[in-house]
Amino acid sequence: MSVEEPQEPQAEPQSQSERPSVPSNSSIKTMLANRDPVLLTVLGVSLFGLILICVFGVLLIRSTNGSESNGFFAGLFGDGGDDGVEATPTLPTLPTPEATAVAVVYEPVPLDSSQQVSLTLDAPVFLDINGQSVAITTAFIPANTVWNAGNVTSGNAAVWPYGNIVNYVFALPADAQYETVLNSLVQGDPIVVDTKNGASYEFIFTGSELVDESNSQIFAQNRPSVTLVWLGESETGQRLVVHGDYVVAEEELQAEAAPSCELGEACQLGNTRIAVTGATHAVDRPEAPPGFALYFVDYTIENVGTNQLDTGLLRFVLIDELGNQYSLNSAVSQLGNYPLLGGLVNAGESRQVTAGYQIPTNLSSATLRWVVSRVDNPSQVEVVIPFVGNTAGDAVVTLQQANVSEDGTSLILIGQITNAGQQPLVINQTDVSLSDGQADYFVFATSPRFPWTIGPGQPLNFTLTFQRPTSPTAVFQLLGYSFQLSGLR
User: Fold this and answer.
1) What does the pLDDT look like over 433-462, one tens digit per residue?
2) Among the four 296, 343, 404, 434, which has the fewest Cβ within 10 Å?
3) Crossing angle, helix 25-33 and helix 37-64, to 10 degrees?
């Protein structure tokens, strides 16, 4: 019995087609030596892909470090400046008053805390003060800030706190030349505001005052006006403030036919009833500046509504035949026969008040239009007042008594005329009249007889007897003076 020795199992040799095709080192070297194009292409593509991976890795790291705010290309090419440094916009130095360029900050103002809604206003760019041009810059000044030259920087320009568009408020530099310009203004001098969009708003100087630096009333936005605040130093803690009223364009006044009334006739403005009772042209008052006379309009105002009337919403303008407008003068009004209108008028309350104006001494106009309007709506009324003007010369007329005769057929007027001029004054019967708006009444008798000749500086006492009017009210006129008479019937 034969025993065969066990043999180790051997793997069957693989066929040539099943073996992996792995080139030997010698074959790779041979391909490189022969510069095989296939191998060179594979190596080139692999190397380029590796470079791209490195580049994008660097860019990804830079973007996560904060460069994404500059965008992809900014991260790739750089932002052209130091990293982390932001440019802060500053107001440029503004031109002198003779400048022809404009430096303006013109930015939207947010209307809510979410910053989703904003409004861009038409910013003013130039301020003309009686022919003196001043450039304007815009500033965002926090509320309740006490203005001074330190916290309101303007260079050589006026500063406009953003948002003041009803009452334009401007801060003028502390330079003494601005104080001189403001102090040189007289009643009626123009103040013009030009805006970025080409609009032009005209105001006229109405007065100036010294106010405390902490006074916030100058910023009130309840009527169209302009307020100029000089930022010069003050030892008393007060500063010079100039006020001007808006001049309504003639076409604006005529845009809507306003109810027209005669002297002594009541006009209705909403729930306000107004009637002019008299007008006085004073040419000899020492308070009037050279070249000007004072003009007083006496009137009654009655609140016929159920709520209080805020008189600050009313505007009183005097207009001559040429369209020149004269703004209400508070100082002149206080020189009149009655108090200046102000404050609140209760429901059902009636007041007798005076509106005062400064007009040129040589004003020539057959009539004057006294226009009353509201600043919160387009409503307005006007009263046509006869005006003789310069015909009166320097005459001062006072009406002392008005009595109905015992037989009830006539009206007796007693008064005085003073010639305050340097030349004799001659008055004829054509210079006097009595009318109730429906008819003119005859003169029965005069004392002395016409013509009246009054020497310089001399007074003349007169008595006129007219036909008694058929109406309960009438207007007596002598030269440029008008007097409202009531209780005649």
Assistant:
1) 898 877 889 999 999 998 898 888 899 999
2) 343
3) 90
